[in-house]
Amino acid sequence: MSDALYPGDIPGLKWDRARSPAFKTGIYEALSGAERRLRYRTYPKYSVDLAYEVLRESMQLAELQRILGFFLQQGGSFESFLFKDPHDSTASSLIFATGDGSTRRFQLLRRIGNYAEPVHNVSADSKPYRAWFPYDSSSFFWPEYYGWPTSADVEPLPGSYTLLPNGVIEFATAPAAGAVLVWSGTYYFRARFAADKLDYTEFMRRLYSTGKVSLVASLQNIL
Questions:
Q1: How far is CA 113 from CA 24, 89, 94, 104, 148, in A?
Q2: Measured distance CA(148)–CA(2) in Å, rounded
Q3: What single string gives the DSSP state of each residue in 129-147?
Q4: Model confidence band, residue 98 (pLDDT cutoffs 50, 70, 90)
Q5: Cα separation of 41 and 115, whole Å?
Q6: Per-residue pLDDT tens over the stretch 196-211
Q7: Which of 68, 53, 43, 51 is nearest to 223 (CA)?
Q8: What is d(CA 200, CA 202) in angstroms, rounded to the nearest whole number?
Q9: What is the mean pLDDT of the chain?
């Protein structure tokens, strides 16, 4: 398991970037038609399909070398790595827990609608906060307008919490009962290449394009 970061900042990435969450369910059907279903995955795996329209091969840019070299470094689908999805990688004042006065460890989450999923790979500068104001995502307001504590007041002091492996936050002192905890920071998918080969074509001198570059990804360290 590698923490190498997929080179996602290379220009030339085409649109039609497909993402597909997938669960795994065992379905057993009786002769009567009644079904019994077993859920094998608590959280989904994601299929991510990318394609590059133009990759340059100059010494100054080396875009092809970065993609191809990264693929070779991982041994195709053998080694996992971190992937930062440009549209699914940022938490901004995201609720992840409510204090009960005794619990000190909490799992950081990513939310989509009413669905919450644990994130295991977060940036070192990710921070938890205490939400002192009534939190209502449909009518968010800034508490300092009402003379309430600002974000500078609610940010935990250095040393008051520790970011543990797998996206777990541990507070030195348990948050008070009813304290709404939110966090801001960056998270990554754990990913691998879906195939052991990478197709690329030179369509002009030192200009290349790729076929579909498929990844298998998860927000947990489970692949």
A1: 21, 16, 12, 26, 28
A2: 44
A3: EEE-S---GGG---GGGGT
A4: confident
A5: 15
A6: 999 988 888 888 888 8
A7: 43
A8: 7
A9: 85
Q: What Å distances lie between residue 211 and 18, 47, 93, 203, CA to CA?
A: 13, 16, 38, 12
For the beta carbon of residue 104, count every other beta carbon within 10 angstroms.
Answer: 14
Angle at 14 between CA 80 and CA 197, to 5 degrees: 40
- Can you name the residues that pair with 35 across neighbouring β-strands? 29
Residue given tokens 């379905």 in the structure block: 27
d(CA 89, CA 188): 6
Supply the pTM of this predicted model. Answer: 0.83
Q: Say if CB 48 and CB 83 are below 8 A apart.
A: yes
Residue 11, both tokens: 């220009």
Helix, strand, coil percentages for the chain (3-state, nearest 5): 10, 45, 45
pLDDT score, position 158:
60
Q: Which of 180, 32, 44 lies closest to 106, judged by CA?
A: 180
Q: pLDDT tens for residues 39-64?
A: 999 999 999 999 888 888 887 888 89
pLDDT in tens, 149-186: 444 445 665 668 889 999 999 988 888 888 888 888 99
